[in-house]
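Handout, section B. The chain below has 79 residues.
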Amino acid sequence: MANITLKDVPDDLHERLRVAAEASGRSLTKLILTTLERSLGPRRMDRLDLLERIRSRRATMDRVLDDALLREAIREGRE
């Protein structure tokens, strides 16, 4: 993977990025990469590749969001 060094980032922009990264639970690098990817539009992804990413992500979750969990949240008044 390639590396990029970003120089002369204005202090206010750096702070906004840092706050956004913290709020989203991502590292600053991950937030910037995600933002860049989204700004360049969607990329075509192999369906099997996507399925593997979903399975990998689900494996790290405490529980999976399903209909029963949604109904419970609605009953408890959570959004």
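Note. The CA atoms of residues 21 and 30 lie 8 Å apart. Compare this with the example in section A.
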